[in-house]
Please model this.
Amino acid sequence: MRFVKLLPLQALFLIAAITISNYVYSQKVTRLQCEHLVNPIGIDMDNPRLSWAMEDTAKGAAQTAYRIIVGTDSAAVIRQSATTWDSKKNDFKQNIITMSGAKLAPFTKYYWQVQLWNQLGKPLPPSAVASFETGMMNMQNWKGTWISDNNSIHATAAPYFRKVFSAGKAIKAARAYVAAAGLYELYLNGEKVGNHRLDPMYTRFDRRNLYVSYDITAQLQSGKNAVGVLLGNGWYNHQSMAVWNFDRAPWRARPAFCMDIRITYMDGSTETIATDGSWKTHSGPIVFNSIYTGEHYDMHKEIPGWNTVNFTDTAWSEISLRATPSQKITSQLMQPIRNVTKIPARSVNKFSDTCYVFDLGQNIAGVTQTRLTGEDGTIVRIKHGERLYKNGHVDMSNIDVYYRPTDDTDPYGTDIVILNGKDLLQFMPLFNYKGFQYVEITSNRPITLTKEDVTGWFMHSDVEPVGSLESSNPLINKLWWATNNSYLSNLMGYPTDCPQREKNGWTGDGHFAVETGLFNFDGITIYEKWMADHRDEQQPNGILPDIVPTGGWGYGTSNGTDWTSTIAIIPWNLYLFYGDKKPLEDNYGNIKQYLKYVESISPGGLTTFGRGDWVPVKSSSPLEYTSSIYYFVDATILAKAARFFSKPEDEKYYSALAAKIKKAINDKYFNSATNVYGSGLQTEMSMALQWGIVAPELKGKVAANLAARVAADGMHLDVGVLGAKAILNALSDNGQAEAAYKLAAQDTYPSWGWWIVNGATTLYENWNIQSERDISLNHMMFGEIGGWFFKGLGGIKVDEAHPGFKNILLQPHFVSGLSHFTASHKGPYGTIISSWKRVGQTIEFTATIPANSGATVKLDVPTGQRVYQDGRQVPEKLDISSGTYRFIIK
Model:
């Protein structure tokens, strides 16, 4: 290399130029998503949402404009030559837009690229090219017919289906589109397609069915191919009896499916292999399956090669043609359920050669994979439970209480396998999941099992983790972990209450835990699906059931505002966490119809429509008070949504309604002389603070009274689910962070920590571990604490004026019980980090704000101390842009 001697000024300019160039090109456009998914297939809308993130660690990094190119030719998109849509340069600082432009065609792959301009007005290098692919787009584009076998709803054997077809030319691409009423497993040439579990997701089957799209190009071969489908009952044909009347669902029928395999050949032609009368069906080794109880498998009835080309199916039967279950079949655009975490058995207790009990070491939702061999005719029972009796055997008495069997052929939480005496079986149920920690395996003849023969699979909707937490208190760390375990255990395409006893989509449980869920996991696709379930279930008069979906149970007199406010609270939180208005827009009319009903039965502004503060420690709050607060919450959310969508009449009306409800609550329940709500119970005081009932100038006094009440209760909880949602926030948001932390870190009864010190790896349904009822060991209804860690200790909060963490309200609390605490959350703009530690009398606080966002920092400074940054004193409250900042409080 030849070196040129430069004058000092020339060298300075060259260094500056290199620095600027490297700075610009270190910025990247990342995380391109369509409908909150990466490169999805099966898009069914003309105007999908596109989002992205800007990656840059420099202070002040921001987006000042964007341009999006969309086309069907990836090379043309790279050349910035759009064939479908060009947004042109748009001076817009948000990172999610709704695509417009040309109408999208079905079965078409679209490529897209984002160009950003930074805070200096300079263009960044374009993003990598992402894609999305449309699916059916319209029900009329289906070629297939719905098919089933010829059996009734009472037949127990799962039906198998097969067809052989030929792909006559060189294949360019192939897709399979599968809709099912019930559950299915799809196979091509002997291999399972995809890694999903329990597809499709549970819906109100007579009003909406979901189809799943697969890229099967790699599994399809030129020439002959065999496609196989295995159907399970799921929630469609519920044969087990329980108090929830699943077996009486109005849609109940024998499982059925419809499928199109669409092949695109190299010459540009297409061919569709569809379900029709030419398919064959037969029963097989799955002789019984219930999503609620278990699965039974008889090895003698196995059909080797049933889904391969050379299998002889002359003994198989003709199928039956069926009508479509509903007139709305839409794409399943959401994170699927998968076997996510493999959990080997931690120990095994051998009672005899016909009885073994395995311990996974933690409570999960999912299945066991069991390696079995034994004499011909050996019957093996695999029973799952959360507890053990004192004698070491599995105790199911806390989770089978709502099961109403008609005989002993369908034992609860139990898989049954009949061995053939020849082959080793790796058994894992396909159409069931359970909630359990312990597995008891019994047999009618001796079998040999080791610890390695049983493996647990933690199953749940496979949402991306976006939150992390670490503190100096091991109890806090374990509580956060246990909360996430319960959340995931109860995320099965919709939020559930528990993964064993019910598996129901209880609305209250869902919205109590939504902030915990969104701080820790990227779950918007699951919640959007669940809100569509709400729309399916809503009655014309506005009423919602308190379990969604439902086969009919839940339209009673208690399904009121404290539970079914999901219709407003879930979309509102999705807007706050993602900056995405679509969930509010999709549900706006439903919120309005719901409020219309509540208003019709609550003319004075107060309502008794609700379930109340469920499972309290000892004190019960007035139903009218708690239900009316949620009525106020719903009206407030609708008024704000009306403003977003330029509906001034609605905004005026529902603002006035909210004010009316608030006044009625305060007139009846607030004592202005003592600054106490009701009789001063923890739930009464905390709900008023949490949900904005208290006048701003009185919040400090009410919070002080709440803290005093907690102290009088021995720094222990005296709340049910409604109070558990509110109390930590009510304290820490209003000057009582120390009291909130002491409650959160309490480890004696009643408290969250009491569960942990007694061995809990998930959250429980009852504060009292020895309670006679309501004692599931894996419930999410007390789960707000998992979100409070981020808010109340890390201080990471959404800013309603700048949602989606475009601006972060960063208000950490340096509580005396911790020496260090770190929380991070990957929001739509990138990862937010709030980290603090004590060094003697000094507090060091570090904040990382992602590019294209900012934060309003408000520090909780001890009396007599000051805040310093880079050696300079700064205010206790200040606005900062993106980057990493270090503050010293001393």
